[in-house]
Structure formats: structure tokens, C-alpha cells
Specification:
Helices cover 78% and strands 0% of the residues. It is mainly alpha-helical. Helix 2 packs across helix 4, helix 3 packs across helix 4 and helix 5 packs antiparallel against helix 6. The chain is elongated, with a radius of gyration of 13 Å. The model has no long low-confidence stretch (mean pLDDT 87).
Length: 79
């Protein structure tokens, strides 16, 4: 399910997004792993969220197409 949304992101955005939202890492931790500063990690997170918002309808349609009606709706509303 998460691969549907992540394919809309640049590789570094997807990496940062996964760290922030699927492992609950802090910006400091993400920055250390990705070898960037805290501001860089936060910028990647913001860029990823903005890109996902831009493609919200497409992501929702893909999730609904594979039968994730309620979950797809909740995910699409969260981004």
C-alpha cells in the first residue's frame, strides 16, 4: 500500500518520508542516517508531503481500485 504513494516522490523524498512516518524517527535521526542536517531532513519531509498532496486524487483512485475503500479514504485524507 505505501509503495503506491511513495512512487510519486523523488528517491530522497521517499526515503525521508519512510523514516519519518513509518519508523517515527526525529529530524535529527533522519538527518544522521541520510547524512544531511536537520533542516535538510525537514525540507525533504515537507517536499514529500506537498508532492503527495498534489497527487492526492491519483493516490486515492489507485487505493480504491485495489479495494482499499475505507483505508484508502483515510490515507488520502491524511496527506
Amino acid at each position: 500500500m505505501k509503495k503506491i504513494a511513495l512512487k510519486y516522490l523523488a528517491p530522497r523524498q521517499a526515503e525521508a518520508f519512510e523514516y519519518f512516518y513509518y519508523t517515527d524517527m526525529t529530524a535529527r535521526e533522519v538527518g544522521a542516517i541520510m547524512n544531511i542536517n536537520i533542516n535538510g531532513a525537514q525540507s525533504l519531509k515537507t517536499a514529500a508531503r506537498n508532492k503527495l498532496k498534489q497527487y492526492r486524487d491519483e493516490i486515492r483512485a489507485e487505493l480504491l481500485a485495489i479495494g482499499l475503500n475505507e483505508a484508502g479514504q483515510e490515507i488520502a485524507e491524511a496527506i
